[in-house]
Design brief:
elongated, about 30% helix
């Protein structure tokens, strides 16, 4: 029997919406004050959902302490207190904007290969505030 398990972690970080190939004026017109350096802060929430069979006798998909350690190492440590435009390669190189969609995709890529055998990463949700979030379910 397959089941899913979701865990929420949080981190405080800044991001700035701007395109590196545009002038400051073009960015200001497109994104308003969200384009202002160094960026604006959020208390991000990240929900990670994994699926897999329930282990006999234990009744769990995976050891929760293993999942917690993975989320701490791959989400909290690299992003806490950071400017996401500087620490996320795709964003820093100007390939994409520093959106919650881009962050969800980036985090998905960080996690997917680190899960135990038989456990599948179903979804990563990145929430900037109570009214805005994005889900990424893989390529």
């Amino acid at each position: 029997m397959a089941a899913s398990l979701s865990r929420v972690v949080g981190f405080h970080a800044l991001h700035r919406l701007y395109r590196s190939d545009w002038s400051e004026a073009e960015n200001r017109i497109a994104f308003g004050p969200l384009a202002d350096p160094p960026g604006h802060p959020h208390d991000y929430q990240c929900v990670v959902t994994v699926t897999g069979p329930l282990a006999p006798l234990r009744g769990m998909i995976m050891d929760l302490s293993v999942l917690d350690r993975l989320l701490h190492d791959e989400i909290v440590i690299p992003f806490e207190g950071q400017v996401l435009n500087q620490v996320v390669p795709e964003i820093a190189q100007g390939a994409t904007l520093a959106t919650c969609e881009a962050m969800a995709a980036h985090i998905f890529g960080r996690l997917t290969s680190r899960l135990p055998a038989g456990v599948v990463l179903e979804r990563v949700r990145v929430q900037e505030d109570p009214t805005l979030y994005a889900d990424y379910t893989g390529p």
